[in-house]
Design brief:
The chain has 182 residues and is mainly beta. The protein has 2 helices and 13 strands, in the order ββββαβββββββββα. The chain is globular.
């Protein structure tokens, strides 16, 4: 696997080795020893799978308790995946990074605890899978507003359109009231 640094401290694009032929392909998406050798000592406790249609935006989610690191990937379709640094004292606090993840490019993104995370579906639909380092804790789940002007994420939403949001995501916190992590 290839671990590619991003402009955000501690966020990495993960490029697995893909072995393909006329029958299809094989790739290893998680191996504790491979990640450990690259400096990531991770213990995943939960796997999640969501399916979303074009134009749906999920996020930007985080938990104030049971903070989750996430290893995310797409198995069908394509998304624009985003992480926002919420770590107080981080040199990249308040900065965002976005990357296209798709079934075709087979990239993954490592989003450590202390980040808000979300994605926007750019294909007809997308299957989004993610491994989490802690349990889902709905009582502490928060949402940073997807369109907060201070953060200024450049989502690939077509001109004249608005993303489809859940009620919770439509009520996201602005940057000034959003909790930070130590």
């Amino acid at each position: 696997m290839n671990f590619v640094e991003t402009p955000l401290k501690d966020v990495y694009i993960v490029e697995p080795r893909v072995f393909g032929d006329q029958r299809g392909f094989f790739m290893e998406t998680w191996n504790r020893e491979t990640f450990r050798a690259a400096g990531f000592d991770l213990d995943f406790v939960q796997d999640n799978h969501s399916r979303s249609a074009r134009g749906i935006l999920r996020g930007l989610h985080f938990q104030t308790q049971h903070t989750q690191g996430k290893l995310v990937r797409v198995t069908s379709g394509e998304v624009f995946d985003v992480a926002v640094d919420l770590r107080q004292g981080s040199p990249t606090l308040g900065q965002w990074f976005g990357v296209s993840l798709s079934a075709d490019n087979q990239r993954m993104l490592w989003v450590p605890p202390g980040f808000a995370h979300g994605f926007y579906v750019t294909s007809e639909y997308a299957d989004f899978l993610y491994k989490c380092t802690d349990i889902y804790h709905p009582a502490s789940e928060q949402t940073l507003a997807w369109d907060d002007p201070t953060v200024g994420i450049e989502w690939p939403v077509p001109a004249g359109e608005a993303p489809q949001l859940s009620a919770k995501d439509a009520e996201g916190l602005d940057w000034d009231t959003c909790p930070r992590f130590d």
